Predict the 3D structure of the following.
Amino acid sequence: MKLRDIYLFALLAIPAISAPHIRVFRGRMIDDLFAACTLSANYNLSASGGHWTGTGCTGATYIPGNGDTVALADGVTLTQDQNWTIGASGASNTTPAISVTDTGNVVVNAGNTLTLRGDFLSGGQNYGTAAFLTMAAGSSLVFDSSLSVSPTTTRYRVGTSGPWQYRQLLFNGTSAAHVTVTSNLANGALAGQVRTGSVGTTGGYGIAYLSGTYVDFSNIGDGTTYGDAIYADVCTGCVDLTFSLQHFTFTNSGQLVFNNFEPTVSALLSYGAWTHSLGTASFAPVSLSGPATFQHLSLDLPITEWGGTGAVVFNDDYFGVFLESVKLPGSGNFFREPITTDGPVGDGMTNPYILLDTTANDNPHWLTIFSAVGVINGGIFDQPDDVTADSGEMVGVSNTGTLQNSILLPTKTGHGNSEFNSNTGLAPPVGTLIYLYHNTWVGDTALSGNGAFAMVQSNEGGATLAPVTAMESNLGWSNGGAYCKVGSEATSLAGALLNPVTLADYNYADVNAIRTLGVACSGIPCTSTNCPNSANSYFGNWSSATAQGPHDVDVLQPTVTHPYLADTTRNVATFDTAYLHTAAGAQWVTSTAYTVGQIVSDPKAGVYNGATVNYRCTVAHTSGSSTEPNVGASWRTDWEFASLADIRTATPAGTTYIDGAIGCSAGCTAIQALEGWVKRGFTPQNPALWCSGHDGEAVGAVPFCANGRLTLGMLGSIAGM
């Protein structure tokens, strides 16, 4: 303590008070106790004593610390080789703890912690590659506003002091030594941020040139307005900038925001996980006009709608929840979709796995297609619960696009729940282009009194005629209940004119398909007038491949009665025990205290036919009838399928599975393994369906004929050698 401190305490007879209030007293009443120091040459922090300039900074051994602020001259690198607390604990947007301009840089060495009691800001207008903060493997960055005048309203940030600043921010962790970025929340302090613009504002240009590997963010941002964890914004005309995070986590943090990413600015996020995200979204790619790849990510809150024209792809990501109508093109993504209306935009999706994880979800619209060239390829549609009042549509809110090689799985009771699509609206657009190729569909809903339902539902709401362009090589089956290939849902018999189908052939329906007149299908009874070609369950104006009628497999092969699918019990619920071979959890019992992470099982004859399914506790509770896994009315509040935790963990970790039996000879991600395992289960064992489709492939969603022909061709070539 300086002599002036002692003198003033004695003079004013101030009693002992807490540290935060001492800060206020010292900071507000004595203007020269905290030093504002400048370093003009490269030094290690431990050896920088005597080389600082500024009032109060000139002692031979003086090194700025808690309560002080520092600035680095251009070209200066300060290497932090010891733990360091710096900053005056001021209010938000006041004097920064550390400031640099065009080329100053702080390097935090391995094992050391930088604690900021103020902002760390880079100024100037610099488009170069020089970093202004470099965190080495094993180092830590801590934001700490706990000793400010008002911790509950004070937030610090690492960022820019003005626009047009794009110097690098580097987090150089390794698999063995992560970088950690966190906040001290004592005294109700607000969490820190990495962002452009002042705290509490919309931000400005900057923070686009960030690179991080093996970095863990926790308590960064808080999800309130302007409470983002990281906010990156780019200017028009900026060139060759890259925002990259790989092998990272966000825990108890606000969202990551990309805004105004121009065509020359790229983004890469891979092997990352968000848990306990705060606010309404984990990730907000607001505007992306450059290339962006988001892969091997696990998100627990939605990704928001994004704009721009960039080549954006999402690959092998786990989406714990998301907003409707969000564009998510890419391959091998898992969607845990608690929706009751419309799902994400399916245009450009390949091999998505969609889990409708809701209780008694009626009329779900799983995915939408908004483009005539939009394609959903290889999807798996999994809703454990039965519908109770109204079936849904795998492709909803659209009358255009292609659904192919996709599978609707049976519910936990073995029923269907959705059509491929429903031609809906009072006036569907003329020239609608709907293509349905090589899909496998389970018929027969659990609804009573509403008749059967169909692969395709036409004329919903009395819609005027709109054609289904093609419906070929689709496979329908059920566990015993009746269904139709194409049905009508009319508001009245006067509105029962039916949507024509331009081309329909090589489809298959098992013996449970309705083939007689007078039987209701999706709301109205069939007659010879409103159900033409009814002998084939075709309710519409269908083309004929031959004079004898449509070229359907069940017409050409009247002895075919069942597809004999390999294993229809495969789904996300059984993945944990049936494929990963995780041991069954202890039997669930009522009136028992369960804690987060506990695993139980609860086999029931009417649930997945008695299969052993593991469930993971998500909320500590005492069990009762309403919380019994997969049975109780509110069980999803307290439990989840254990498989979801498996996938969530394996996805950002990059875990791979090698299994040639499911197409994973070269190794698959957890999501790819789930998809491959399920699809092998829905391969028809009936030879009548092999290579019998319109294009020479097998009827249904799982292709294998092309590979077989290739193998036979190779064997023939070898034999001829």
